[in-house]
Specification:
The protein is α/β, with parallel strands linked by helices. It has 21 helices and 27 strands. The structure holds iron/sulfur cluster (SF4).
């Protein structure tokens, strides 16, 4: 077991005594504006407090309406939102936790409907609008709004406030020469650009006796943005203005360097916080706690950062946000040495949803954000449940049913569980998908689920299914065949075959334009380097100078019949994925019709209507999936109550978020005293599966 001693050392922020060195970072959940009396919001935070989270920071609460991030944000002058927050603080305290209210102003990142305000009228490609430059009176009024927010936080029972000044929000916008073009008290030189953030910190400090954390950007990752020297001066000024801790963020939402995506090596930003700690120490503020964050998803990584094994100076705390969506028990599990459901940095159910004002959840933990509605109750009627298929949907269904107390058996056709995640874990940046498999396998073991490997179900198994009270079919997908001549040639691989070691070398042509094709293109074209992943990332993104020695075994071409690659990939990830493919030199031909595969390559008609050969040593077919139809038919034939979930129900786009959620929901149906199993008709309406395929 890893040494987590540095994590579990108590610490202090201001007058707060914290039980350990992990702070749960702010996450906008999309339920802040829900008018339910705070039920959902309080349940979310209280569950994490019970899981040992210690100090948690809420999602951003807008200090005034113009600074709201969108319709799903709460605004502090809304009395009903304030009452919801009061309930949050109360329930967190009852659960033994501590909570900070994040005081937020989006500035030019607010949506157009808010009539956004900012230091200067500089267009934002994040919000896709141009804000109006604030008047001097509006700037001063906004400082006061932060102070009012701090006073309200104290009145509502919070333990701390966090001033949100990173990721490119308003305080960052004042700090940066890119977005602050003023020449008055609030801009014109480095000192005046710092002033807004400092005044806000001072006003917040004076308005309450709570612990005051200020989050700011240690690096904005913006070309022409705030220089490190100015960041250091800003840190000193924040310390002098009364901050009790500095939380160091990295990267604006508009930055061209990815900061939180899976392709960003874990821990790569920790040196930024260590640097801030060093400059504070040198200036006599060494006692001021510094919080490191961004792209740390395991307690083991946090322990390394806190122990200073990655740097000569040590941050005092580590902020982790998304990992608490994936596993609300993160801290307690670490303390007890239990497996943790690791955050994959996929962003699919969290950041990408928050960007479209949808409610946030988590791919690997569909309960996230829905705690109040999905509380687990042990069943009073223990049933025998068969789960067919050990991919994401089946694993989730089996775990959920076993947690409720049912007797569960899982049938998996191959020699290991994991399904499509066994392929995904090979993709650069996605090794943690293997941790998800390990977590669920350990959970099934702990919960006594009997797992039958290498046990495909065939036509003779309807009788076997009749031995169960309910069947959850999660038998997954098959690669969709491509109906052109030449697919039987020896150098043509299906996409699962292409993930095998050494399968992709030479001139590799991938037919398809969805997420799997993009994953394979990354895998084939990434090449190997003697540098560490973090060092390679820093050099590739020119964060430090130096060559990237590289050997690339494959030259990759993607042939896609549609106009754009990987369109189902979320907004926070797709741009970074395309940039990565571009860096790797991947050739992408869109609007292409593949006519035939030959020994020499792929004969296509290109977007201009010309027939041509795309030479290839290896051709991979990744044109989508077909839902398995056989096991659903078997379940129907058995007459046993059943649900078909995940790819077996709908193969469109290989949606793992949906697969986990459907597995969970199907198992949760069995909580009902009589979900229909014991009624006259054993098969409920609505179980019909759809045989689909994805043209991705
Ligand atoms: Fe992490 Fe993905 Fe879950 Fe977000 S959806 S918390 S990135 S695993």
């Amino acid at each position: 077991m890893a040494d987590l001693g540095a994590v579990f050392a108590p610490g202090r922020i201001g007058r707060l005594r914290l039980p350990h060195r992990i702070v749960m970072g702010a996450m906008h959940l999309g339920i802040e504006a829900r008018d339910d009396g705070g039920t959902a919001l309080a349940a979310f935070y209280a569950e994490r407090a019970r899981g040992g989270a210690g100090l948690m920071v809420t999602g951003g609460a807008a200090v005034e309406a113009a600074g709201s991030g969108g319709p799903a944000y709460g605004v502090l002058d809304d009395a009903r939102f304030a009452e919801r927050l009061r309930r949050v603080a109360g329930e967190v305290h009852q659960a033994g936790g501590l909570i900070a209210l994040q005081l937020f102003h989006a500035g030019r990142y607010a949506p157009a409907g808010n009539s956004p305000l900012a230091p200067s009228a500089v267009y934002s490609r994040f919000s896709r609008c141009t804000p109006r430059a604030m008047t001097d009176a509006e700037v001063r009024g906004t400082v006061e709004a932060f102070a009012r927010g701090a006073a309200l936080a104290a009145e509502l029972g919070f333990d701390a406030v966090e001033v949100m000044g990173s990721e490119g929000y308003l305080i960052d916008q004042f700090l940066s020469p890119l977005t602050n073009l003023r020449d008055d008290d609030w801009g014109g030189d480095s000192a005046r650009r710092c002033r807004f953030g400092v005044e806000v910190t001072r006003a917040v400090r004076e308005a309450c006796e709570l612990a005051v954390i200020v989050r700011f950007s240690g690096r904005d990752l913006m070309a022409g943005g705030t220089e490190p020297a100015q960041v250091h001066s800003f840190a000193w000024a924040l310390a002098a203005a009364g901050a009790d801790a500095l939380n160091v963020g990295v990267g604006w939402h508009e930055a061209a360097v990815p900061s939180v995506q899976a392709m960003v090596p874990a821990g790569v930003w920790a040196p930024v916080a260590a640097e801030i700690k060093a400059v504070l120490t040198a200036a006599g503020f060494g006692a001021l706690p510094v919080i490191a964050g961004n792209r740390l998803n395991r307690l083991e990584q946090a322990a390394e950062v806190l122990a200073g094994t990655r740097s000569s100076t040590r941050p005092d705390f580590v902020s982790m946000a998304r990992p608490f969506l994936a596993d609300p028990q993160l801290v307690e599990a670490g303390r007890r040495g239990r497996p943790v459901n690791v955050c994959l940095a996929c962003n699919q159910a969290c950041i990408d949803r928050s960007l479209v004002d949808a409610e946030v959840s988590c791919m690997v933990n569909p309960r996230a954000g829905r705690e109040a509605a999905t509380a687990l109750v042990r069943t009073s009627t223990v049933r025998r449940i068969a789960v067919v298929g050990g991919g994401p949907a089946g694993l989730q269904a089996a775990r959920r049913a076993a947690l409720a107390g049912h007797r569960v058996e899982l049938y998996e056709a191959s020699d290991a569980v994991g399904g499509q995640f066994r392929l995904a874990r090979r993709v650069p940046g996605k090794a943690d998908y293997g941790a998800t498999i390990d977590y669920f396998a350990a959970e099934l073991d702990r919960l006594g689920v009997q797992v039958h490997l290498e046990r495909p179900l065939g036509p003779a198994d309807a009788g076997l299914l009749r031995d169960y009270d309910a069947v959850i079919v999660a038998s997954g997908v098959l690669p969709r065949p491509l109906e052109i001549p030449g697919t039987e040639l020896p150098h043509v691989l299906s996409y699962p075959e292409a993930f095998a070691d050494g399968a992709l070398a030479g001139r590799v042509v991938i037919i398809g334009g969805g997420g799997v094709a993009a994953d394979l293109a990354q895998l084939a074209g990434r090449g190997t380097s003697p540098l560490t992943e973090a060092e390679r990332f820093r050099r590739e993104h020119r964060l430090i100078a130096g060559p990237v020695p590289l050997s690339r075994p494959a030259e990759v071409t993607v042939l896609h019949r549609g106009p754009r690659l990987s369109t189902r990939t979320g907004r926070s990830v797709r741009w970074a994925l395309l940039a990565e493919l571009h860096r790797q030199g991947t050739r992408v031909l869109t609007g292409v019709r593949c006519r035939e595969i030959t020994d020499a390559g792929v004969q296509v008609t290109d977007a201009d209507g010309r027939d041509r050969l795309v030479p290839a040593d290896t051709v991979v077919i990744a044109v989508g999936q077909l839902a398995d139809a056989d096991v659903p038919a078997l379940a129907r034939q058995s007459g046993v109550w059943h649900r078909v979930v995940g790819g077996a129900r709908d193969a469109t786009g290989l949606d793992a978020v949906r697969a986990f959620a459907e597995g969970f929901a199907a198992a949760a149906e069995l909580d009902a005293p009589d979900p229909g199993i014991d009624a006259g008709s054993r098969v409920l309406a609505g179980t019909g599966q759809r045989e689909g395929w994805a043209d991705d």
